[in-house]
Amino acid sequence: xEMAEDSGLDLVEISPNSKPPVCKILDLxxxxxxxxxxxNEARKKQKTFDVKEIKMRPNIDTHDYDVKMRNMxxxxxxxxxxxxxxxxxxxxxxxxxxxxxxxxxxxxETDEIAKVESEPKLEGRxxxxxxxxx
Length: 134
Hints:
alpha+beta, single chain, about 130 residues
């Protein structure tokens, strides 16, 4: 402790549970600053995935479908996941096979650039499928 006081630095206990406890003489403020800088740098390098949502209807027109697919490709290029939501209204619930066919079409068209993360499943009046970039 006297050595630390003489040098104007702090005595920091590194591992208190070992026998004998290990201590270091260093500038605590500088040490904390370096540790925080290292943590921020690690956080910067982390890749985060956003989940973008594309909403469709079972009887979507061809041009509207093409626009949605173009947006989906753009999302995959940016590295985002895409959640395709197919909303059924009224009597469309009786024709769920149209929705399944549409989602199969989406799957085949995005086969080379994306993989299916969750299969199409019905949640109330919506059919949902999640795709991730490959």
